Amino acid sequence: MTTWDRKYLLDAVLKHEINPGRVFTAQFKLDNIQKAYEVMDQRKAIKSLLVF
User: Fold this and answer.
1) Which residues contact 36 (CB under 8 A, 6 or more apart)?
2) Widest CA span of the chain, in angstroms?
3) How many angstroms separate the CA atoms of 42 and 37, rounded?
4) Tally of CB atoms within 10 A around 49
5) If pLDDT is split at 50, 70 and 90, which confidence band does 27 have?
6) Which of 8-12, 14-18, 21-25, 47-51 has the least mean pLDDT?
7) Ordered DSSP codes for 1-52
8) Residue 28 β-bridge partners
9) How many C-beta atoms surround the C-beta of residue 48 within 10 A?
10) Of 20, 17, 39, which Cα lies nearest the Cα of 28?
């Protein structure tokens, strides 16, 4: 990432044009870890949060 990229991205975050805070798009119990990987593989989730 270049300095220009960081400035551009920071500006977009501060203007609420993008929201970097939403990383996990699905949540699964540890018993369903296989399903968590499947939905990411199928592009139905960006990141799966595993709850212990």
Assistant:
1) 26, 28, 45, 48, 50
2) 43
3) 9
4) 12
5) very high
6) 21-25
7) --HHHHHHHHHHHHTTS--TT----EEEEGGGHHHHHHHHHTTS-S-EEEE-
8) 50
9) 19
10) 39
How is the chain split into domains, by residue range? Answer: 23-52
**What's the confidence (pLDDT) of residue 51?**
93
- The residue type at 10: L
pLDDT at 41 over 90: yes
* Amino acid identity, position 32: N
Tokens of 16: 């609420």
Residue 30 Cα to chain centre, angstroms: 19
